[in-house]
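Input record (Table S2, row 454):
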Amino acid sequence: MRSYRCSCLVMCLILPLFAQGAEMAKESPKLKDERMQWWLDARFGMFIHWGTYSLAARHEWVKNYERTPTDVYRKYFEHFDPDLYDPHEWARAAKGAGMRYFVITTKHHEGFCLWDSKFTDYKVTNTPYGKDLIKPMVEAFRAEGLRVGFYYSLLDWHHPDYTVDKCHPMRDNKEEREKNKNRDMKRYVDYVENQLRELLTQFGPIDCLFADFSFPGDDGKGRKDWQSERLLKVVRELQPNCLINDRLDLLDRPDGWDFRTPEQFMPRSWVSMDGVRVPWETCQTFSGSWGYHRDEATWKSPQQLIVMLIETVSKGGNLLLNVGPTARGTFDERALECLGFMGDWMWLHGRSIYGCTAAPDEFKKPDNCLLTYNPKTRRLYVHVLVWPMGKLHFDGIADKVAYAQLLNDASEVKFSRSEGGAWMSGQGGQNAVTFDLPVRQPNTVVPVIELFLK
Ligand code: GLC
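Output record (alpha-D-glucopyranose complex):
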């Protein structure tokens, strides 16, 4: 009896502790969905890469690529003075493009901090500009109704305790390698934790955190070096609703990440892990560089960008599209032009993006088309990438469509059952529909047919 009571007591004391730990690790898929709902609905966000590399204007990795010693690199810090910075203009540009959240590099790999951190002198308030950049930015974007995300670089090519590794600008410098002996990554992680605490307590609700990045293994850094679990705990504690990306090297922990982040490429299909579809966000640039790059010329066309957004959503993902502002504090005029194009398209077609996802598997996309689907309104969107000549055939939906219209002007699209195939094609579609389209493409880059399902 006594031992029974005793074990009951132990259980009562210990179980809640276990439960607490397990709770963090075991958020139900339903709760996770709820936490992520705004993000899943938003589908389109703006990445902003801004730092002292914007003065060099030749990639945010310039310090690394050119193996620039810290004292030489300092010239950018000494000349950082974005006199034309107006975050309201940025926020309007993002909103105008149809974006619903933004993610700003509070600190990139160069180590420069865009807010007035107590834990370093290497920050904007010590540059000629002299003022915090983050608070006004957060306020301006919030005022336009956008959610707020912070990017924070785990790498730091400026901090004295950060050891030289294979990704470091000084990787080939023997003397600097030697100095690793006196560098203390534990002190560096204290610094990271302190800074995360600042970022997560001084700027109101932070909707997502983009930690960047892990490169475990030989001469690299991963979860042990960053003490990722410790950092994760801080984020979850301070901002329980904040979404966290997947670059802390904690993929094996269910609560170690909220979404995957394929970078600069389009996944072939919905990103999955062990056969299970997971939330994902692809981050993309207009050209090859994240930071402002004056001479980079491989800019994607507005049409490519719009198709990229549609294709992302058609595979169940989000698009985080990057702008690298200039050192004057303005958006690159090429970026503004592209954002304008996207905004024009989104103004008419946002309904086929927001709240949408991949179409259920039973719908197979017609030739030259991409499909998205809104599960709440049960509308299916056919994005027509190459405008056909008068007719569009869609197999397998004849018993499912109640009404069809062009999304850009809500003009009816007539359709008929076309079982047996198009005239002379010899191949009959099953349960097929043929839509009658105007010969001339509607005046928009990618027209969309909106299908109301039965
Ligand atoms: C990479 C790059 C970095 C960029 C990031 C965006 O990790 O190091 O420059 O900020 O991707 O996802």
